[in-house]
Write a structure and sequence with these properties.
45% of the residues lie in helices and 0% in strands. By secondary structure, it is an all-alpha fold.
Amino acid sequence: MGFPHHPNPRETTVLSQHFGDPEARTLDGWKKRGGYKALEKALGMQPADIVNVVKESGLRGRGGAAICAATPTSRNRARSRTAS
């Protein structure tokens, strides 16, 4: 559950690992903790490469159908190429 509660032992804290840390609320404090590194990397990549990274990660969408988060993006990119 995260701050202010202790996480469950089976829980992997990713986004919530810095909850409750006042310094993590500032931009400089967040950057010290590695914030925005993925954004910087993504900005230097081609869109198709970003879609592939998401596919490889196995990230699932939040719609309840357990669809890979990159699937709608792939479909939309394919449609935009055929429409041009």
